[in-house]
Every structure is written in structure tokens, then in C-alpha cells.
Amino acid sequence: MKDVAVSKSTLLERLYANRESHKKMFQEALEGFCKAAEAALKLELKRLKEGKPRNVFVHTEVPVDQTVQYNRVIEMIEMSLGDTVMLSEQDFKQYVMDDWTWSREWLHKNQQYGDTVLAALSKYGE
Q: SS3 breakdown of the chain: % helix, strand, coil, rounded to 5?
């Protein structure tokens, strides 16, 4: 199937739920990131105070909030005329299945920061 007509209200409900799920995962990942970064910095500071200086490099990647992606699509759908919306297979995969082009990489990068993120990887069989 190439394109599919979907109910605008049903699509919006799904997008709102997917956005809320992403916000929760992002918040959990951000909190986990802050804890991990703080622990790494404290360890390096402890080494300095103990007179065991070494080259310091702390690399922790800040989680990216993709909520703007959901907001853009929601606004487009809300402004569209009529009760149905035509979606391509790719649009359906992203908007309904919540499988965006960035999803898998985002989940992998943030899996160490929270159980919710880690659990979300299971939909990919990982």
C-alpha cells in the first residue's frame, strides 16, 4: 500500500500520545545524562584533589529533545482541511508508528540514561 487516508482526529490523538511519550523519555534521559555527567566530573575532581592529575576528557552527549518535530506535524494536521488526511507509507511510519528517521539512533544514544528509553528499543527487537 502506497498511501492511506486516515481520520484526522485519530491521527492527532496518536501524535499527541507519541509526543507525550517522547517528552517523558527525553526528560528521563536528560536527568540520567545530568547524573552521569556529574558523576564523571566528580571522579575527575577527586583525582585532582588526591594529587593524581591526568588529562581530563569527559564525553557525554546531551539528549536531543525532538518535541519540535511532533509540534510541526501536529500543527500541519490541525491546519489541514477536512476530516481525513492522506499519509504516505513513510508518514504513517513516523506519525502513527512513532518510528522517525532519528528514532533508533536517539534511543541507542540515550539508552544508558533511563529504563523507559531502554524499553522503547524493544519495538525494534533490540
A: 65, 10, 25
Domain layout of the chain by residue ranges: 3-30+65-124
Cα 27 from Cα 47, distance rounded (Å): 31
Q: Where are the beta strands (DSSP E) in 1-126?
A: 3-7, 84-88
Tell me the pTM.
0.87
Binned at pLDDT 50, 70 and 90, residue 70 comes out as very high
Q: What is the mean pLDDT of residues 91-117?
A: 92
Q: Are strands 3-7 and 84-88 parallel, antiparallel or unpaired?
A: antiparallel
How buried is 107 (Cβ within 10 angstroms: 0-12 exposed, 13-18 middle, 19+ buried)? buried
Locus of grid cell 487516508: 5
Rg, the chain, Cα only: 20
